[in-house]
What we know:
Structural class: alpha/beta
Bound molecules: zinc ion
Strand content: 15-25%
CATH architecture of the largest domain: Alpha-Beta Barrel
Radius of gyration: 21 Å
CATH class of the largest domain: Alpha Beta
Largest sheet: 7 strands, mixed
Amino acid sequence: MKQPIIFAILALFPAPSFAETVFIRAGHLIDPERQTVAAKQLIRVEEGKIVSIGPDGPTPADAKIIDWSSKTVLPGLIDMHTHLADGMSLPHPADILSVSSAEAVLAGAGAARKTLRAGFTTVRDVGVYRGLTDVALRDAINAGFVDGPRMKVAGAYLTIPGGGGDVTGISPDVGVPDQFRYGVARGPEDAKQKARFLLQKGADFIKIIASGAVLALGGEPGQEEMTEEEMLAICKVAEARGSYCIAHAHGAKSIKAAIRAGARTIEHATFIDDEGIALAKAKGVWLAMDIYNGDWIDSEGRKAGLPADYLRKNLETTDVQRTGFTKALKAGVKMAFATDAGVYPYGNNAKQFAYMVRFGMTPMQAIRSATVDAAAALKMDGQVGSLKPGAWGDFVAVDGNPLTDIRVLEKVNSVVKGGELVAQ
Ligand SMILES: [Zn+2]
């Protein structure tokens, strides 16, 4: 009899209240959409959403004011490739079997909090080994139980048995509970069923592991895992449900197969070749290239005792991915900010900005990739990453000017989400 009572309480308090009006004074306001900076602006947020932005001026006597008049303000940041719900960095892939589902989700809550406080007010969480923990974390954040970014989640990985999204590194005669294998698929028909299951259980999109992974035992990043036929079947299921598929693809062949199958974004895109670049451009596919974490894995991950196989594959993929990033950027392929948070400690997402600038972006382009461009890739245009009236009142403030020194974004200490002050 306890369940109905809990649901009744949830219905009474479904989400935090946003009824109040909040004014934010911005010393400088960066508009990534228009690529402009305006001095001394006043932002009015009502019920969590932007109502108007204009020159700073008088506010009502009893108004709630967030005074960032000495800071540079920009829309809340978006990371297109995180793993918050797998909330703990474990050195061995099978270590996930040593923690309970509750421990994993609670660790995810900690990861979500750190990420939000680092200025990332929206993330796309692209897969968990323990299926659907990400759905639980997203829903807990939306209900106001846990502090964290707005999340779009995958539910699990659509992967071949033993592939980059399966639990690897265990003996063949050791059984693994079903929840770790919600997305392990054998052939197109099975892949369809698994995709339908995840969407029905609350996934926002489907994440396909098209090629081998760096951080998995067995499988090489350059090798194909899921076939084009399987990917096509999955992407059609997602599309029919008003959703979409995305693909983890390091290898050149897997990248092209995933694009042809209908993937909306290509994750990693490490060994992308000229043909892949042309195809991505022609089809308007986004690349989500995590060009920061290779350095972290090689230094800190090495010290933390990551398996030798991970370290070797990381070295084989780091520089070539950065070269590919520069090439694809020059060719005009759409790029979205994506870091693979969880590989490195949570809250350090913004460290990737400097890499994006070093490998070819202007600071404004890098900011766009984590705001207006990421929002478009997420199909959340005008809702997040934007200063347009009607968008969520999500903002970050920094000391200094990120357009002259992008690294100031690594020190975000003031965050507002939905008009509510998260950190000052
Ligand atoms: Zn990842």
